[in-house]
Amino acid sequence: MKVIIVKDNAQGGKEGYQLFADAKKNGAKTFGLATGSTPITTYQEIIKSDLDFTDSISINLDEYVGLPEGSDQSYNYFMHKNLFDAKPFKHSYLPNGRAEDIEAEAKHYDQIIDDNPIDLQILGIGRNGHIGFNEPGTPADSKTHKVTLTQSTIDANARFFEHEEDVPRFAISMGLASIMKSKHILIEAFGEDKADAIKGMIEGPVTTDLPASVLQNHDNVTVIIDEAAASKL
Ligand code: GLP
């Protein structure tokens, strides 16, 4: 893993942007995208730039299951607000969390990933080391699947909802094997509450207890973290 330690989230966004710019320059066509607060500064730098994605494909990691149609908490809404409205892609895929048959939707999503190999995948990390919505215990060979969210993730994400009970209990997420197929993976983390997860991811054993540790088995991972997230290394 190549680890880049930055001063803060803003500088992290500039470094993250640079990876997107380099990937585009080198012919990348398909970008794996993430939600959460972490990638926002990278998306802001992309929006400020003259990068053009109208010939590119995007594939998002995950989506909540069971939100009402048009919910402004959905990851679909998040992506439009934070990136797509300003930087449209030729085609943007997100898992459909409102599909009647989530298992069928998961299979369909894996086919999309197989048909559009991801050149650069951006990831955040949960406090418990989850990536996408792959919670501790998720097998390394997992593909896109329905997830039952842990209480730790529900608590962490409650800040975006009016009431804790409004946070969905389920999601659909690319699996760890789906993520590991990406040619280049960029994982970002900012803030002290990510320090334990980052330490485990980089220095700990590869274990399903900390899903992000599987990235040690990938040969092209760039980690962009601020000093607080790096404080336990
Ligand atoms: C959510 C998302 C993840 C994200 C994580 C961290 O659970 N499914 O993709 O990485 O939260 O979020 P944040 O970046 O807001 O800390």
What does this molecule look like?
By secondary structure, this protein is an alpha/beta fold. Helix content is 30%, strand content 19%. The strands form 2 sheets. Strands 1-10-9-6-2-3-5 form a 7-stranded parallel β-sheet, with helices on one face. A 3-stranded antiparallel β-sheet has the order 4-8-7, with helices on one face. α2 (40-48) links the parallel β2 and β3. The longest helix has 17 residues, at 9-25. The protein starts with a strand and ends in a 7-residue tail after the last strand. The model has no long low-confidence stretch (mean pLDDT 97). The structure holds 2-amino-2-deoxy-6-O-phosphono-alpha-D-glucopyranose. Catalyzes the reversible isomerization-deamination of glucosamine 6-phosphate (GlcN6P) to form fructose 6-phosphate (Fru6P) and ammonium ion. Pathway: Amino-sugar metabolism; N-acetylneuraminate degradation; D-fructose 6-phosphate from N-acetylneuraminate: step 5/5.
